[in-house]
Amino acid sequence: MKIIYLDIRYKVANTKILDAILNMNRSYYSDTISNFINEDSSSILGKLNTSHTNENLNIKQTRAWEAQIDLLKTCLADLADERVLFEFAIPRMGKRVDNIVVLGNHILVIEFKIGSDTYDKSSINQVVDYALDLFNFHETSHSKSIVPILVSTNAATVVNSMVKAGNLYEPILCNTQTLRPTISNLLELNSSDNGAVDDWEQGRYKPTPTIIEAAQALYNGHSVEDISRYEAGETNLFNTTNELNKIIERSKSKGSKSISFVTGVPGAGKTLVGLNVTNERKKIAEDENAVFLSGNGPLVTVLREALARDRKRAADEADEKLKISDARREVKPTIQNVHHFRNDYLKSTEAPDERVAVFDEAQRAWNVHQTSKFVREKHDLPDFTMSEPHCLIDYMNRHEGWCSVVCLVGGGQEINTGEAGINEWIRTIKAEFPTWDVHYSDLISESTNYLTDKELVAWVKNNGHSSCNLHLGVSVRSFRSEILSAFVENLLNLELEESKRLFNELRDKYPIVLTRNRDIYKGWLNKMKRGSERTGVLVSLNAKRLRPEGIDSENALRSQSDDSKIANWFLNSEEDVRSSLSLEIPSTEFAIQGLELDWACVAWGGDLSLQNGDWAFQKFIGSKWINIGKEATQKYLLNTYRVLLTRARQGMIIFIPLGDSKDITRLESRYNETFEYLNSIGIPEVN
């Protein structure tokens, strides 16, 4: 029997039961419009109050529902068998939309701002986001026309154009007086389908959240089942979470120590799995705790700040007094910088508070040289000779009895000198901790992107436990196409025919275009963006000669940037020039790794260029380009572009400069062959 875990405490033996459970609380109230109109308003309000399980229900929310009920009864009076829903769940965002009206082939997504006299940008983005969520992730909405409607009850009347792109309407703005005629106009465009009305609510919801949305939803009590797709096969986040929980439970019951390696393609959801395991294990029992650790400073900064802002927003809505500084302190223990965790090991001989430690991007842990150099210089320990994996495992090994370590490993993503890769983790276990239980996927030993030492491969196969559930082979970052990572891999490996084949599969789901004009890429990004989707410019830190094109890599976002600069870039609105949305400040591979945008411009620099059919690897020093001869450094540079080309969830534009015949550092020949190669794959140029 296949067991599916909703939470470590509850087991369900069939995916149909799981679907039923997930749909059970999809909305607080759902009925035909005729029943809604005939039902006493106080009865409807009572059902809403009962469904609202949050103890912070306040009078402000209750009065908002009263106003919505009264207004909708008036505006929907001409309808009968159509359906109305209150507080429909959007789990990917951890929120609920005020109302859904299912007309047939038109789905009205209505967000009320009771008492508001403006159609503010954030509210418009909010309702568009809800509409996009249904459009992208709700099965029975895919073939419908989705209509986002913002109702600011006291705002001025505006003329709406009723324009739609594909099946998604532009946002419609209404007040108390214009909502009813707007619905009447939409009815004239609608084709009635009562069967579709009945079936719509039961449609499966298959979201792929951004990592920020996922962190917020998980922190607020959702599980990975709520906010991610649960598809069959070894690519399933759900199965991977299950497998890790079983390994942890086994260690706990046996009193043993275990280490698990979760591999995956870029954007496959490794971080999501790690966050989910961390949240689940923190609430199992008082003697068990978990921590999510990452050496990716920008990821830690952005997730912490996103959680803190979301916590502050929720507190404000509940009329709870909470300072943002207190919210930041509250969320800090959940997500920590792995280097700070390591430093705690150096300061004390005690075991850590946590028995479960999840290491994100474990391949980026420092090798012996890098770690020893840092510890000797910063902690005055001249005899220290450990790698970072050795430090971290040794720290967890201090526990009496059980503990479990989870390493999330991205293949081919080492981009920094001194990053040890997966070899160092296995070498440490083999030499120093051979009694630990090792769990891995076959991909760790079969792919050159992971474990490359043949002796270590043999040791793992003889001493470890293999599970296909510990590999995530499908990208969920790019929900529009799951073959993006394979396409990028072949593109960088100069496999022209396979790149062509994959691009033909990709192009209709995931737009990729080329331009040689910087004004074009800005216009394209702004055209593609909808709601609060994020755009941004990405560039290699080593692409120093893009400054004449207005892209300054030396002042771009990087891992050493201060926390506020990083948080502002990823989280602030388009009105803030420090935001990624302003398209003024680019991000490098060091700040964007592990994070994502919806739409990206990848600015291709002169550091990686095609010359006579092969990649030329160069670094700009002083006033000229210098060839990179070291194979490891060449690999880092190739990985840089792998990272940059896999950051966008929905599509990207690649900007390749024309060059300048009068500037020896920016000659046309540095860029033309690269452009021609990408164009020959089939990537079209936009002018």
Fold topology:
Elements: E1 4-7, E2 10-12, H1 15-24, E3 29-32, H2 33-38, H3 41-51, H4 59-75, E4 83-90, E5 95-102, E6 106-113, H5 121-137, E7 145-152, E8 164-165, E9 168-169, E10 172-174, H6 179-189, H7 194-200, H8 211-219, H9 224-227, H10 237-254, E11 257-264, H11 270-282, E12 290-294, H12 297-317, H13 324-331, E13 335-337, H14 338-347, E14 356-360, H15 368-379, H16 388-397, E15 403-410, H17 421-432, E16 437-440, H18 443-446, H19 454-463, E17 465-466, E18 471-472, H20 484-492, H21 496-506, E19 512-515, H22 518-528, E20 535-539, H23 563-571, H24 589-592, E21 597-603, E22 608-611, E23 614-621, E24 624-627, H25 631-644, E25 648-655, H26 672-681
Parallel strand pairs: 6-7, 7-10, 11-15, 11-16, 11-18, 12-13, 12-14, 14-15, 16-17, 19-25, 20-21, 21-25
Antiparallel strand pairs: 1-2, 3-4, 4-5, 5-6, 8-9, 22-23, 23-24
Rg value: 26 Å
Got a strand count?
25
Strand content: 15-25%
**Unreliably modeled segments:** 1-24, 229-235
CATH domain class of the largest domain: Alpha Beta
Question: What value does the average pLDDT take?
Answer: 87
End-to-end distance: 57 Å
Number of domains: 3
**Secondary-structure content class:** alpha/beta
Examine the coordinates and then state which fold CATH places here, giving the name of the CATH topology of the largest domain: Rossmann fold
Give the count of helical stretches: 26
Give the CA-based shape: globular
- What can be said about the biggest beta sheet? 8 strands, parallel
The proportion of residues forming helix, as a percent range, comes to 40-55%
The assigned CATH architecture of the largest domain is 3-Layer(aba) Sandwich
